[in-house]
Structures are given as C-alpha cells and as structure tokens.
From TrEMBL:
The lineage of its organism: Eukaryota, Metazoa, Chordata, Craniata, Vertebrata. Residues 337-364, 693-731 are annotated as: Disordered. Potential negative modulator of chondrocyte differentiation. Inhibits collagen fibrillogenesis in vitro. May influence chondrocyte's differentiation by acting on its cellular collagenous microenvironment. It holds the Pfam family LRRCT. The gene is Chadl. It comes from Pheucticus melanocephalus. This is Chondroadherin-like protein. Residues 294-342, 645-691 form the LRRCT domain. Residues 345-356 have a biased composition (Pro residues).
Amino acid sequence: WGLLLLAAALGATAAARCPAPCVCDNLRAHVLCLNGSLTAIPDTIPELTRKLDLRGNSFMVIPAGAFLATPYLTHLDLQHCKVERLEEGAFRGLGRLVYLNLASNGIALLYQESLDGLFSLQQLILEGNRIEEIQLGAFGHLASLTVLDLRANALVYLPDMIFQGLQVLRWLRLSHNALHVLGTEAFAALPALRRLSLDHNELQALPGEALARLDGATRLDLGHNPITYVAEEALAMASLRHLFLDHASLQDVAPDAFARSPQLRILDLRENQLQGLPPLAGAGGLVRVSLDGNPLLCSCLLRPFHKWLARARVQAEGACAAPPALRGRSLNSLKSPEMRCSRLRPPPSPTTPPEQPSSAGSRQCPRGCVCSPDFHHGSCENRDLREIPRDFPEDTRLLDLRQNSFRTVPPDAFPGLKELVSLHLQRCSIRELQPGALRGLDSLVYLYLTNNHLSTLAAAAFEGAPQLAYLDLDHNAFTHVPAGTFRLLPNLISLHLQHNTIRELVEGDLAGARGLRWLYLAGNAIRRIAPAALAPTKMLEKLQLEGNHLSEVPTAALRGLPALSELKLSRNPIKHMGDGVFLPVASSLQHLYLDNMGLERISPHAFTGLGPKIRSLYLESNKMSNIPDMSNFTGLEILNLQDVPFHCDCQLLPLHRWINKLNLCIGATCGSPAEAQGLKVKLSTTFQTCPGWGQGEAGETNPYKTKAASKPSKKKRLGKSPAKGFSKSRA
C-alpha cells in the first residue's frame, strides 16, 4: 500500500506540474509539447518523465543544462525546433538518454562539449541541419552510440579521428552532404562499424586509404558520387560484402580493384559510363555484378569479362547498348561468337591520378599558442594578439585564432600552411582582408569571419584559396553584397551574410558564385531583390531571407532556380500574397516558411503549382482568417497554423473537414465568431449549422483531402495522436 500511495502521489504531482500547452501521459511518463510556440525548454516538466516530445517549437538555442530537471529521460525529440546552436553542456545530466532526434533544425557547428553527458545514448539523429564543421572530440562522450545520422548536412571535409570515442557505432550515415575531402584517419576510431553511407556526395576518387581502417564494415554505399575510375587494389576492406557504386561517373575499373576485399559478394555499378569491364580476378567471392544503365559495348573486347562471369559463376545484370545487332540483349544471354570486333578501337584507359605528396610539420608552435600534433590543430584563441602569428606546423589543418585584435589580415598572412582546411577568425576586430591575404592556402575549405567589422571585400583577398567552400560573414558591417568577390571562388557552396545591414540585392552581386547551394541572408534590411540578382546561382537549394524588410514575395528573382528546395520568408512585412507567387520554384520547393509576417490575405491561387513535393509549410502567427485550397499538398509532414485567427463560419467548412482527417498536429484555432473564439478549428461546433454538414461528415468528397488525411503514415513527423491517459487534449 505504501508503494501504491507513493506512485499515486508522484502521478498527482506530475499532473499538477504538466506545463501548458503540453499533454502528459502519467502512466507511461510521456510528455508531448507538439508544434507549439515554446521558445525555451519548459522548466516544469515532471521530473520522472521518460519520453519528451518537443517537435515543432522555436528554441533557437539549447542552453547548458537545459534538461537538468528531467534526469530520467530516455527519449528526446527536438525535430523542427529551429535550433541553431547547441551550447556546450546542453544535454548534461541526461545519462539515461538512449534516443535523441535533432533532425530538421539549423545547427551549423558541433562543439567539443555539445553532446557531453550522453554516455548511454544509442541513436543520434542530426539529419537535415546545416552542419558544416564538427570539432574534434564532439563525439568523445558517446561510448554507447550505435547509429549516427548526419545525412543532408553541409559537410565538405572529415578530418582525422573526427569520430573518436564511438567504439560501438555500427551505422554511420553521411549521405547527401558535399564531402570531397576525407582525412586518411577519418574512420580510424570506428572498430565496430558495419555500415557506412557516403552516397550523394562530391567524392571524385575512391577514398581507399580512409576506408582501409574499417576492417569490420560489411556494407559501403558510394553511389551518386562523381568517381570516374577505380584503381588497382583501391579498396582494402577485409569484411566488405556489399559495395554500391551506382549512379557515379565510372569509365573504367582496374582488374585488381577489389583484390584486397576478399569477402565482396554484391557489386552494384548501375547507371555509370562503363562500356565494359575486365575480368575481376581479384574478387574471388563475387556473386552478383549489376551493370544496368551502362553503355555496354558487347564486342570482342568484352569477351574476357564474359568468360570470367561464366567461369566464376557470377550473375551479371545488364544489357548491351552496342553494336546495334545486340542492343538490348542481356549479358547472360550472350555467346562468345556473337561478340565480334569490326574495326573497333578499344577505349583509352584513364590515367591513374598521381599520388599527392605528403608534408610533415617540421616547424614548432608559435609562442603563446597551443598546437596538437595528433589532431593537426593550432590555437591562439583569446590571447590579445595584435598580429597574426606565424610558424605553425606545416601539417596544421585547423587554426583557431578567435577573439584577438588583428584589425587587418595582411598579404601572405599564413605562409606554409598548404594543408590548412579550417580557419577561425571570429571576433578579431577585422576591418580589412588585404589582397593576397589567403594566398597559399591551397586546401582551405572553411573560413569563419563572423563578428568582425568588415564592410567590403576585394576578390583579390581570396587569391590562392580555390577550394574555399564555406564562407561565414555573419554579424559584420556590410551594407551591400560585396559584388565580384566570388569570381575567384569556383567551389563556394555556402555563403553566410546574416545579421548585416544589406539593403538590397542587385544584378552582379553574386557573379561567379555558380556552385552556390546555400545562401543565408537573414536579419538584414533587404527591401528589394532585383530580378536578375540570383541568376548566377542556378544550383541554389536553400535561400534564407527571414527577418528582412521585404513587402512582397520576390517572385521574379526566383526564376532560374530549378533546384531551390527551401525558402524562408519568415518575419518579413508581407501583408498580401498574390496569385502564383511561387510558380518559378513550384517544381522543386519542399520547405516553405511564411510565419510571423503579419500576413492578412492569401490569394486563392497563391499556391498555384505547389503540390505533392511540399513537405513542410509554416504559416503560424499571421492575421489571415482563411487559407487557399491545399488539397494537392499530399506530401505534407509539417503544417503549422498556430496563432492564426480563423473565422470559423461555413466558408471554412472544407478546411475543418480536411483538418479532421489529417494525421498532423497543426494548432489551428478559431479567432471568430465570438462563440467559437479560442476553440480548435477541429473541435468547433459552429460548422454543424452549415448546409451539407451531415453529408460531409458521412463521407462526402472533401476538396482538401490528401494522402496525409486518408491514411496515416509512419513518416508523419508531427502526426502522432496523444496516447490514452493524457491529462489534456491537444487536437
């Protein structure tokens, strides 16, 4: 009886402390605060909570010790919470946590202690952020982690030992980044890894040396990389059984390419540019080779490979593209006499790229600085330096010079640092980068210049740094985009110009930025974007314009952006949205942010062209009383309509019916009439007097009906209904 009374008392305490607008399931110790307007982690969550779901809020920053009041958490979901920064110690105290989901936020950098204290964590999901860099040691405390998901971020480079500490990790997911440089020891600290996903990146050669550290890996995904050639003994993975090199740019594979991977069973080479293959004599364990989608030339040149298939009993999938007499014939159906040569020349063999010379750091560390030879790091952070120090070891790859007072970066400021990849110059009072300032930094990928006093940049400042992919100029003094600056940066992928005072974008501002994918312009004073201002950036995928002074959607400027998948217009004073404003990007747009704009009216045809590709739509905190028909938004995973004063009369009946069938939590509330004010649109009874009410509820065709409405999907990220036993309703 004593235990029962104690349990009842704890349950009553938990119910009393359940914070608004959350719902609490006291029996299962679950708390849901979905799709709300929370800007800070509630401090009244019951202490005994085990599962906490905070999806769809607006936290921006997770401060140190944010969850100290809930030490029993085992599952924490922070998807779609607009998180940009994890402070060091953010999850300290969560020693029981086994699952952490931070997908679809705006995190750009993982600090060394960001994940401190999570020593029981088994799954960490960071998919769909904008992580550009991971500091060494960031995963050092995750000794129990088995799955690490870093898909769809902005990683270009993986330094040596970056995954140190992940002793039991079994699956590392790095797909859909922009990786093109891997340290030779990048995967050295992953003894338990079984599966590595590197597909959809920018690798131009098989990273054999880095992969050789993975003795236990059985599956490797390298598809959708621009790899043209697999050299002899390029892959030495003792346990590898499944290798995917599909949808690459392969033109040739050496006969002994897989000789040092004796367990290889499945080789997927679909959709490449292979006209043929040599006998893969070194791959004695192969069972199947997939060659579908290659321009196979079934001439006498292919006979040795064809005979090897039969001799080794390897199943081949693929069909001839030439000669015409054999076009469409499967490889398995061919006979050697049919494979003839008639004045055909063998295709030229690609030249094996020369090995890059390695350089060893022979110089000592500058006085007052700290250099780590194991990690190839140098740091002079917060040393009150007036000049940039020299004589760092030549093999330095990360140089941290933050919080000094350099004022200017002179020509040739970093001599001998040809291997430097990441340079940190934040908060250094810098007003000028002189021409040639970065000369000699042949390998530089990341340059951080945030919180300085820069107001202009000359293109010549970037001379000699052709690999620069990430340029962070947030929190400076720019009043305009430094036109012409990017002509010497052919590999620029990500440009940050947030929180400056830029007033407009004009034609020519982004000239030369042909490969730009992510453009961040939040928190400026932009009133106008010229129709041709974004024209050079045809590969642009993300455009963030929130917190500016735009009074209309810049429709004309969006033309010619066929890859744009995310557009943020939040916190711009756009009061009216006309017909077809998103038509130029309708075929590619997936995530659209229109919240907190004071939006008063949306034209019935404003969303024309948008449809099944839209995955998330944010319309919260606006002033319109109705929204257009979105019946073709069949792929919705997130829809936020919180703090919109809907007028719940008969004109809103189709929306009411649609919402009733959606498997999403959207937060729509009636603002009028008076008898419905404050009620959920889903629950309002004002619709019961509308013509056709009975037929509609009985199954009348609903113009708002979507796939999301018709059948629940496991993919719906905000679509879980509150479980039985919750103390409040949150429809």
